[in-house]
Amino acid sequence: MEIPPFVHLPEYPFVICKECRFACVANEVPSHLRNHHDSVKAQERAQIARTVTDIPGIIHSQAQLRGFADPPATTEPTPFIAPPQANGLRCDTCGYIARRGGNVVKRAKQERTLPWTAGIRCQRFFPTRAGSQWFEVGRGSEVPSVGAVEVAKETVEQRITRIHQAQAQRFKTRSRQVIEAGDDRPRRTRGYGASGGRSIYRG
């Protein structure tokens, strides 16, 4: 159902803003329109909000959104929200999805021996707060090209060890560079130079 700038897909209990490309719960529709679509007049905002509120089964608040279950991983990518990201990581034990550079490190410290699968396609409905978790989409719907999907059975402890080893190697490299740079500097020795001064430099 189209409720410009929103659309309601019958399989989901919220509306999606087609312009902003993320979802919105019913009681935040007026503020979303006011903050992101200032061309929509107050009377029209009120009418849109009433239409959304009257949708059967619609979620009204962030509190209600916490009980929303993510769609199955085999679900095709959801239209109208931001397109899938291809750099997701899936915990092979609990199915938790994160993206590289997100809170994977924090999760890894909490769960010490979990294997992860990389190259997961993932989306999310909301950019912040409840409902902003990533979920897998399109599992098994296409054959990835060679090298496009990396399946990593690396435990968290192995990953942390690898990171520490890389940091140690960088430290050793920097230390060696500092030492070599110090050897190239001229050394000051006592004696008389051609100018009659007390100190000269030897290269």
What is this entry, summarized?
This protein is of the alpha+beta class. It has helices spanning 29-36, 42-53, 62-65, 104-110, 156-184, and strands spanning 2-3, 6-8, 15-17, 22-24, 85-91, 97-99, 116-123, 135-136, 187-190, 199-202.
Q: How would you portray this structure in words?
A:
The protein is of the alpha+beta class. The chain has three domains: 2-65, no CATH class; 85-154, no CATH class; 157-202, no CATH class. It is built from five helices and ten strands; from the N terminus they run E-E-E-E-H-H-H-E-E-H-E-E-H-E-E. The protein has helices at 29-36, 42-53, 62-65, 104-110, 156-184, and strands at residues 2-3, 6-8, 15-17, 22-24, 85-91, 97-99, 116-123, 135-136, 187-190, 199-202. The chain has a four-stranded antiparallel beta sheet with strand order 1-2-3-4. A hairpin with a 2-residue loop joins strand 1 (2-3) and strand 2. Helix 1 runs antiparallel to helix 2 (42-53). The protein starts with a strand and ends with a strand. The model is unreliable at 143-157 and 188-203 (pLDDT under 50). This is C2H2-type domain-containing protein. It comes from Achaetomium macrosporum.
Task: Tell me about the largest β-sheet.
Answer: 4 strands, antiparallel
User: Structural class, judged by helices and strands?
Assistant: alpha+beta
How many domains would you count in the coordinates? 3
Put simply, the count of helices is: 5
Radius of gyration (Å)? 29 Å
**Which regions have little confidence, pLDDT < 50, spanning 5+ residues?**
143-157, 188-203
Q: What is the N-to-C succession of helices and strands?
A: EEEEHHHEEHEEHEE
Strand order of the largest sheet: 1-2-3-4
Percentage of residues in helical conformation: 25-40%
* Beta-strand share of residues: 15-25%
What's the average pLDDT?
A: 78
Tell me the total number of β-strands. 10
**Morphology:** elongated
C-alpha end-to-end distance: 81 Å
InterPro entries: OrsD
Region (Disordered): 182-203
Pfam family, one: OrsD
Organism: Achaetomium macrosporum
